[in-house]
Amino acid sequence: MNEPNSFLFIVHRSRFIVYSIVMRLAVNIDHIATIREVRKSDEPDPVAAAVLCELAGAQGITVHLRGDRRHIQDRDVEVLRRTVSTHLNVEMAATPEMVRVAQTVKPHQVTLVPERRDELTTEGGLDVVLHASNLEKVIRQLLDSGIEVSIFVDPDLEQIRHCHRLHAPKIEINTGKFTESWRRGNWSQDLEKLATAAKAARKVGIGVLAGHGINYRNIDAIARIEEIEELNIGHSIVARAALVGVEAAVREMIALMRSPRTLPTRG
Ligand code: PXP
Q1: Dihedrals φ, ψ of 148, to 5°?
Q2: CB 3.0-4.6 Å disulfide test: which of 34, 99, 158, 228 passes with 71?
Q3: pLDDT at 2 > cutoff 50
Q4: 150 is in which domain, residue-wise?
Q5: Is residue 11 domain-resident?
Q6: pLDDT, tens digit, for every residue of 174-221?
Q7: Ligand 1 pocket test, candidate residues 151, 183, 212, 228, most atoms within 8 A of CB
Q8: Three-class SS of residue 94?
Q9: How many Å is the maximal CA-CA distance in the chain?
Q10: What tens digit of pLDDT does each residue of 122-167 get?
Q11: pTM to 2 decimal places
């Protein structure tokens, strides 16, 4: 059974309403497509992986349609839009080409991310301050097309204030720096930054997601941050799925999110 992560108390028309908030898992299946693309073959199929993730309890599927199409292809996004029965989130750069794709395919949600051609993976959050005028335009275009919008940002209060100014409905907080410091064993400051950023965003009504670098060892600390509604996890789940199968890998991650283990004392 899924235990609620936290409760939200709302007074609406003089009625006191209690919502339970369960942290959702969206599985990023890019690297299923990476395995296919290294051979330019037709397997494994990200659509089949998405179905297995959903059967195992994932509440969303995420893919990153990169400008260089190194893993996910346009056709994958189109077929996923027709087959994903939970929630399809497409990560993309805030470019006119990608806005056109989104307006045609209409995923449930777009997450705007920075993109560099020679990076191995997304390296940091979007600089919302620097790109404010383009982001304002793109957020409006997507919202007007009926698509939910999230912005991938570092856990930085100035960036979050700007997201609020741009009327971004949701943000995905970049957990990358925390997961790197976790590996080094000195993670408490970066964890604090994540928690502070999540609180600040929720306080001004922004929906809070988080992701990047989360795995089966560092999930416990993040799963305790009550303001986070959803985690986006890709590489570690696909890596484990290669050994134990997609459904087992997803179930194991969900179990850790629901019942985080005691944190080590160092950090
Ligand atoms: N969130 C964003 C914005 C990403 O770009 C990625 C990587 O594609 C992820 C989450 C997932 O990161 P990881 O594969 O390290 O779990």
Answers
A1: -70, 150
A2: 34
A3: no
A4: 23-258
A5: no
A6: 999 999 999 999 999 999 999 999 999 999 999 999 999 999 999 999
A7: 212
A8: coil
A9: 60
A10: 779 999 999 999 999 999 999 999 999 999 999 999 999 999 999 9
A11: 0.92
